[in-house]
Amino acid sequence: MPRPLPFGAALVTGASSGIGEEMAHVLGRAGVPMVVVARRAERLERLAATYPDVEVLPADLLTADGVAAVVARIRDGARRPIDLVVNNAGFGTSGPMHRADPDRLADEIRLNVLALTLIGHAAVNAMLPRRRGWLLNVSSVASFQANPGLAVYSATKAYVTSLSEALHEEVRGTGVVVTALCPGLTRTEFQSISNTSGFESVFPSFAWTSVGLVARAGLRGAARGRTLVVPGALYKVLVAVSGALPRSLTRRLSRTISRR
Ligand SMILES: NC(=O)c1ccc[n+]([C@@H]2O[C@H](COP(=O)([O-])OP(=O)(O)OC[C@H]3O[C@@H](n4cnc5c(N)ncnc54)[C@H](OP(=O)(O)O)[C@@H]3O)[C@@H](O)[C@H]2O)c1
After folding, report:
1. Which pLDDT does position 92 carry in this prediction?
2. 135 CA to middle of ligand 1, Å?
3. How far is CA 23 from CA 128, 183, 200, in A?
């Protein structure tokens, strides 16, 4: 019998698909009330129709208004306090950086870095006075090394992992926990959006982590107060090995793999 989740109420960004949607299902099944955030409101409404206590907050986190709406909900003292914030919305861009559309790269940084930071800032400020809370930032195994072919994406995720580790220490002992979830390859809409659908034929089936495992590992890791969560044995080993190798070697290995 798994331990019940300790969260009183959650807010999940990017809850309309993939890892965020799966987290919303895990939370919904566990009876945790939640606020679900994404641009596709009709998908969020489906979650609201499935579980008893779901608030739909459609927002485009590429806009200042969208981020402000989420921050306002987190700060809203008149409503049920949110003690779990999952900063999950994000996307990637594959291919050589110099050939990518600069506006798309700016959006990637705006969503993966800026929106995540502002939402995390609001979350920690709301949680500290209550001496209770969890901030779960969705990063990636790509955050642990440079990845030619996913250069900007990996750099945004390196920021997320570094930020989360630093915040974890800043709030240590306060009752607030900050965790970075670092999944490896997981089949979601990410592949079509980041133009990495070719990975399906390049990487064998054992390299793919299920979205259910990723969502459960992230929520369980946050509940246990972990700093970093890498779902799946394969990726735990890869992260440990790549940390022990010279960076000059890991980036070249990554370049070789991305060219296959
Ligand atoms: N899949 C993988 O292999 C993998 C591996 C490591 C890390 N990750 C990370 O996991 C997180 C979730 O990705 P996923 O794989 O679940 O991909 P996904 O299926 O494409 O889901 C992305 C979510 O982000 C939301 N989103 C995108 N742009 C947004 C915006 N401007 N405003 C608000 N919400 C927005 C999307 O909702 P709307 O389109 O409805 O707005 C969607 O719900 C990302 O941070 C990603 O970098 C994924």
Report:
1. 97
2. 17
3. 24, 13, 23
